[in-house]
Amino acid sequence: MIKTSIASILESLPTGHSDRIMSLRLPLKNKEYATILNAYAPTLQAKSEEKDRFYSELRHVLRRTPQADKMIILGDFNARGGQDADAWRGGLGRHGVGNCNDNGHLLLEICMELQLAISNTIFQQKDKLKTTWMHPRSRHWHLIDYILVRQRDLRDVLHTRVMPSAECHTDHRLVRCRILIRPKPITRKGGPPRKKYNHSRLQSDEVKAVFQASLQNKFENDSSQIDPSHGLLWSQLKTAILQTSEEVLGFSTKKNRDWFDENNIEINNLLTEKRAAHRTHLARPSCPLRRAAFRHSCRILQQKLRGIQNEWWSNLAIKTQQCADTGDYKGFYEALKSVYGPTHRVQSTLRSADGQVLLTNVTFILSRWSEYFQTLFGIDRTIHDSAILRIPQLPTKLGLDEPPSMEELTEVIRHLRCGKAPGIDGIPPEI
């Protein structure tokens, strides 16, 4: 639910990503946006497959959200985050409640991976202003409803607290968060934007030959002095290279993020046709012809979108393979980034051997892992024959009283390679 004044400025309707996740994109000043995401996570008793599916969908939605957007996540995550702020630095504040459970680990992992922070644990206040749900049997209050923001936008959060006096006819308490969104100021550039030449075209042998021939012609047709100065030589060389690059290579265009943005005009035309059919259907829902026309437009739209997406993936695969064959590693990794997106490396904290010190430095963490594996594999272990005899042997499943010897097994393998095998102590020859 939003105010009517906000609904009038929305550029798109709320999006339902699944039965547990939906989002709304609000326009701000200076062409900025704030994405509000609402989530309802599975309970602690739910199956692990259902939990993994929910957090996988949540990761997908968050990664598809533009990085420049202000992110506000409201949700009942059915998770207890605990109070270990040192282990989850940046994602969990120092004023948590209770102990962490399995759902809390899943929530904190996605917070650390995607640079999110739990605003409920940032402010020091009474527990009754932080806890949101009371267990029906133990009658203990827990914090399971959260408001998450990006860690870089944590300074915009003025206060997050529970409203105990609000009656919502539910066993959860209302949570309120006050945020002062500060739009970025408009940056004024000093001059026109600089254009970049499309150097990737030099990977083609034909373009490289044309570039060399054009540059050679400019040098031969240059009627300069017999013994020009160094400054004049440099000016002529610079002018020839820049002109040849502009004529042969051209300028690089702005790179789109994915296949949807790259085909924005075509997709918008398809969406316009579908929306027109939808409005016609809503004008008279009982008309079977209009309903059939709307379903047909939806089917055609899905087919064309799949075709556009498949064509984009095919072209990207051809480009990636061409870059790999020609040794263009820059273009190869740019193609990979367009598929996977930018990666954010998160260094997980580690405790010392005695468990008293929390290691955050990369060097100390690597030293602790080295110490752990040296201790694990450096100990001389004694294996007793009785332990080996307790291991069930495969031939016992065939009805043998005792396992065959190594010589007997070798003889069987040799005969199997020849196409026949003799019987050994009760094993029929066909086995």
- Outline the low-pLDDT stretches: 421-427
CATH homologous superfamily label of the largest domain: Endonuclease/exonuclease/phosphatase
Q: Examine the coordinates and then state which fold CATH places here, giving the name of the CATH topology of the largest domain.
A: Deoxyribonuclease I, Chain A
Order of neighbouring strands in the sheet with most strands: 1-2-3-4-10-7
**Mean pLDDT, as a whole number?**
83
| Total tally of structural domains | 4
Question: How many strand units?
Answer: 14
- How does the overall form come out from the CA principal axes? extended
Q: Structural class of the helix and strand makeup?
A: alpha+beta
Q: What is the gyration radius calculated from CA atoms?
A: 33 Å
**Name of the CATH class of the largest domain:** Alpha Beta
- Residues in helices, as a percent range: 40-55%
Strand-and-helix sequence, N→C?
HEEEHEEEHEEEEEEHHHHHHEEHHH
Content of β-strand: 5-15%
Give me the number of helical elements.
12
Main sheet, how many strands, which sense, barrel? 6 strands, mixed
Measured between the Cα atoms of the first and last residue, the distance is: 72 Å
State the CATH architecture of the largest domain. 4-Layer Sandwich
Task: Describe the structure in your own words.
The chain has helices at about 5, 50-65, 100-115, 205-220, 230-250, 260, 265-285, 290-325, 330-340, 360-380, 385-390, 405-420, and strands at about 15, 20-25, 35-40, 70-75, 80, 95-100, 115-120, 135, 140, 145-150, 155-165, 175-180, 350, 360. With about 425 residues, the chain is an alpha+beta fold. It has 4 domains: about 5-180, Deoxyribonuclease I, Chain A, CATH 3.60.10.10; about 200-250, no CATH class; about 260-340; about 385-420, no CATH class. It has a 6-stranded mixed sheet, with helices on one face. Strands 5-6 form a two-stranded antiparallel sheet. The protein has a two-stranded antiparallel sheet with strand order 8-9.
